[in-house]
Specification:
Number of helices: 12
Strand order of the largest sheet: 3-2-1-4-5-6-11
Order of helices and strands: HEHEEHEHHEHEEHEEEHEEHEHHHE
CATH architecture of one domain: 3-Layer(aba) Sandwich
CATH class of one domain: Alpha Beta
CATH superfamily of one domain: NAD(P)-binding Rossmann-like Domain
Shape: globular
Bound molecules: nicotinamide-adenine-dinucleotide
Helix content: 40-55%
Oligomer: single chain
Distance between the termini: 53 Å
Structural class: alpha/beta
Length: 359
């Protein structure tokens, strides 16, 4: 694949690299949820490229997500905070797509320091190595959570110009990483791009997250635990739509720019998601239980994705309900993938003292 750039942002030698037929792409966190979906997407769309996955295989990773790609990718187990390991894998790389992170808000409350270490120090380590190795593109995956939250009764949305206002250890660490990425563009002219996306859903998502956990519990005949009153609003993005957005940013995005990426949901609450899942599985309504809310739980996120739509021609392929049905089917058909991690996720919530309030 050829990646076009504005001439003033990178050197001619860097551009020449992209004109060669094969691109060496380094995907960090490629054994996690979005990363593994992106590895599948990229292998399918760009079979000529050389794909290296670099992942520390934390609890969030699942090697089985990449099993069918065994002969098409190079997998390197390593930690993004380990400069030596990062340098070894960065040699000859043209493009970095950086997903590796600690990503679960609940875990950040229980153990915040690893979030700063992985998300800030890890990203910085990668950036410095990418600079030394003169990579032609560093794309950083970030979150809309860096913008804080929106009061439920407000209709405005986050956009690329929204002021950062992170409110949790997770979002603060992602905000920190975004700032370091931008600093490397301003200071060293490293050719970076950033995408801030909303909550993703789809295949290969860890069973600790709302949608897979709910589906799996329903499949086991259990209730869906909903935080507080379930009125939190998220702007759900199907993971494959997200992968396509990243591809477009790599192909046509402006160096140094940020792109907000969101879904096609109209103010859907967590409670409504639970109800939709119950319906999709043909069950009755009494499958919901309310549990103690997460500390500092943001109530609403919503993203204005008009910039990527206008400039790069991106939009989600389907609406939320269609993709939700696809997702339910995937979890129904892939029990072997989630069986073990679903038990681990339940143990995690039990250890956190999750308590049922009412049914
Ligand atoms: N999932 C979402 O809804 C969402 C929304 C917005 C942004 N994001 C961002 O997208 C990215 C991917 O999220 P995800 O949901 O796929 O995360 P995930 O938790 O499913 O996967 C993260 C991956 O990173 C790896 N990893 C963690 N620490 C590492 C380290 N020190 N070195 C190397 N690898 C390490 C893990 O082993 C895992 O494979 C993250 O940067 C996250 O902040 C996610």
């Amino acid at each position: 694949m050829t990646l076009p750039y504005a001439l003033d942002t990178i050197t001619v030698a860097q551009i020449a690299k992209f004109e060669s037929k094969i691109m060496k792409i380094l995907i960090t966190g490629g054994a996690g949820f979005i990363g593994s979906n992106f590895v599948h997407y990229w292998a399918e769309q760009h079979p000529e490229d050389s794909i290296i996955v670099f992942d520390a295989l934390t609890y969030a990773a699942n090697r089985a997500s990449l099993a069918s790609l065994q002969n098409k990718i190079t997998f390197v187990e390593g930690d993004i905070t380990d400069r030596e390991a990062v340098d070894a894998v960065m040699a000859g790389v043209d493009c970095v797509v950086h997903f590796a992170a600690e990503s679960h808000n609940d875990r950040a409350i229980a153990d915040p320091f690893i979030f700063t270490k992985t998300n800030v120090i890890g990203t910085h380590t990668l950036l410095e190595s990418a600079r030394q190795h003169k990579v032609s593109r560093f794309h950083h995956i970030s979150t809309d959570e860096v913008f804080g939250d929106i009061p439920l009764n407000e209709k405005y949305k986050f956009s690329e110009s929204t002021r950062y206002n992170p409110r949790s250890p997770y979002s603060a660490s992602k905000a920190g990483s975004d700032h370091v990425v931008n600093a490397y563009f301003e200071t060293y002219k490293l050719p970076v791009t950033i995408s801030n996306c909303t909550n993703n859903f789809g295949p290969y998502q860890h069973p600790e997250k709302l949608i897979p956990r709910s589906i799996i519990r329903l499949l086991h005949g259990q209730n869906i635990p909903i935080y507080g009153e379930g009125n939190q609003v998220r702007d759900w993005l199907y993971v494959k739509d997200h992968c396509r957005a990243i591809e477009l940013i790599l192909q046509k995005g402006k160096i140094g720019d940020t792109y907000c990426v969101g879904g096609m949901t109209e103010e859907v609450t967590n409670l409504q998601i639970a109800q939709k899942l119950i319906k999709a599985l043909g069950l009755s309504e009494n499958k919901i239980e309310f549990v103690t809310d997460r500390a500092g739980h943001d109530v609403k996120y919503a993203i204005d994705w008009s910039k990527i739509n206008k400039e790069l021609g991106w939009q989600p392929e389907h609406d939320f309900d269609t993709w939700l049905t696809t997702t339910v089917e995937w979890y129904k058909n892939n029990e072997a993938w989630w069986k073990e991690t679903a038990n681990e996720a339940e143990s995690f919530y039990k250890a956190q003292g999750e308590q049922v309030l009412t049914k």
